[in-house]
Amino acid sequence: MARPVLHDDALRGRLLEVTAEVVDRVGPAALSLRSVAREADTSTTAIYALFGSKAQLLAALLNESFASFGAAQAEAAEEGLAALGVAYRRWALDHPARYRLMFGGALMMSEECTPDPKLASASMAPLREAVERLQREGTFRPEDPATVAAVIWAQVHGMVSIELAGALPHEADADDLYAATLDATVRAWST
């Protein structure tokens, strides 16, 4: 008779989500597997069985987050550069703890935990491909596409990070401000 499955994908997903929230709240140095298990209503045994260690749990969180972010970007890619920007913000607002972990650097600095470079690179590929497509069409300046993509990412990332930090001017409408950022970014690189 087969052994019953004790720890399934639903528990794995819940542990990743709880880990993101706990690290976002207390910082990576204060993260304990006991607190994650308690908040996920499970045991540390489940964490060890599913992930192996704290470092592996954190690496899995980063990898799963980059994969999810990359899938959202790939889904929006066919609709063009502005759609990629909208999808970027939507994903960040839907997953603020994961976004801060992916791009904030605290986890990577304190835990020496880095995402799989292929996943991280693939998550940004739709942006680079959109820039290259616009350059081939002659509607974007013919500068190094990697540089153009990095600058566009920095502008979009900056606005989203300011919004998530609650640092937008109190009278500003976040949707309008983000739309203006996307418009200005596209105009800056257009021919």
Automatic annotation (TrEMBL):
Keyword DNA-binding tagged: yes
Keywords carried by this UniProt record: DNA-binding, Transcription, Transcription regulation
InterPro entries (alphabetical): Homeodomain-like_sf, HTH-type_TetR-like_transc_reg, HTH_TetR, MT1864/Rv1816-like_C, Tet_transcr_reg_TetR-rel_C_sf
Keyword Flavoprotein: no
PROSITE patterns for the chain: HTH_TETR_2 (PS50977)
DNA-binding region(s), chain positions: 32-51
Gene3D superfamilies linked to this entry: Tetracycline Repressor, domain 2
One Gene Ontology MF term: DNA-binding transcription factor activity
Domain HTH tetR-type residue range list: 9-69
Protein name per its UniProtKB record: TetR/AcrR family transcriptional regulator
